[in-house]
Design brief:
With 338 residues, this protein is of the alpha/beta class. It is 47% helix and 16% strand.
């Protein structure tokens, strides 16, 4: 299989699953795989790098990536997000940072944003379920449960109540997966650290990719990734990426999983059971990443911009909408499936 670089728009995300080495020579990055395959990539072609294998590199490379504003995301042996090299921010705005903090500290302003994030996430979840209802799947009870939770958003008094609404809705949503997915892939319930079966594995892996993709898109705006509204800001995590990911999990990750499983693209031989958990092997990671990157680079007609934009750019547009809300220009409304 060729080096794991999947086509994007003008700039590409590069996913390195196999072991090897990254090095710089003048204005070019060289990927040298452990099997001897080599590839030269112009620096201006790279949006981000995702390292899922054992890759060697030096500080000379890191300095070069920092100069060009290229994030590098790291994943552990099992394919789950471990951390990022976040380049020095170039789009810095002290005024916006003050506004971002102000909307976090003011409970009324914070909960307004948090409510819209949850409202949008539940809309996109319900949209998926209604699609499968039209396909003859017995998901009516799950839809009704989520709609009942959705009706309580406006009356929520704090973020903890909103998190409860979101959590119960997602539990109901995940319970519908056994009705949606083909035989042989049983979900049962959501488990993490470690995921207990193939579907939990796919959810965790997909969510890790989306988290780092969202972080890359935030980098290309003036937002601080550490100040969030639904999730509590904390140490060692970019919590705003968690907030924005909630909007896109049903649209991107969940639909990829439904497609991979129901169209028999992903199979049991793409998984391995280790340490009382279920994980994707290297071939499974490549299959998922291929579909994931294809999804990110799929374009749809944007109703306001009147042009086609990719799903990855929709994530960036979500950040811009939040910025306009923080600056008092437009009220934030999340991206809802139509």
């Amino acid at each position: 299989m060729p080096i794991e670089a999947y086509a994007g728009d003008d700039m590409k995300d590069y996913y390195l699953v196999s072991g090897g080495r990254l090095r710089r020579s003048e204005n070019t990055i060289y990927i040298e795989r452990s099997d001897g395959e080599k590839r030269a990539i112009p620096i201006n072609d790279i949006k981000s790098i995702h390292i899922l294998g054992e890759i060697d590199f030096n500080t000379k490379l890191i300095v070069f990536l920092n100069q060009h504003g290229i994030p590098v995301h790291f994943y552990n042996y099992y394919g789950y997000y471990s951390g990022s090299f976040y380049p020095r921010e170039k789009l810095v705005s002290g005024f916006l940072l003050v506004k971002q903090v102000e909307h976090y500290l003011d409970s009324a302003k914070r909960i307004e944003i948090a409510k819209e994030i949850v409202r949008t996430a539940l809309h996109n979840i319900t949209y998926n379920l209604n699609y499968y209802k039209r396909m003859g799947k017995d998901v009516t009870n799950f839809i009704e449960t989520i709609e009942k939770e959705n009706s309580q958003i406006d009356s929520a008094n704090d973020v903890y109540q909103l998190m409860g609404i979101e959590g119960r809705s997602r539990d109901a949503y995940y319970s519908s997966f056994d009705c949606i997915l083909r035989e042989g892939f049983v979900f049962d319930k959501r488990t993490r650290n470690p995921p207990q079966n193939m579907i939990n594995c796919l959810i965790s892996f997909g969510n890790s990719l989306l988290y780092s993709t969202t972080l890359t898109e935030i980098y290309h705006t003036q937002l601080s990734p550490t100040i969030s509204y639904l999730h509590e800001p904390g140490e060692r995590r970019y919590s705003l990426s968690l907030d924005i990911s909630e909007v896109f999990k049903p649209i991107i990750v969940d639909r990829i999983i439904f497609n991979l499983v129901n169209n028999r693209i992903i199979k049991p031989e793409h998984f391995v059971e280790e340490l009382n958990g279920c994980y994707l092997n290297d071939n499974g990671k490549k299959v998922f990443i291929s579909e994931y990157d294809k999804k990110l680079n799929t374009t749809i007609k944007h109703s306001r911009l009147k042009r086609h934009v990719s799903y990855s750019y929709l994530i960036r547009l979500e950040c811009f909408k939040l910025i306009r809300h923080l600056l008092g220009e437009n009220k934030y409304t999340g991206l809802k499936s139509r």
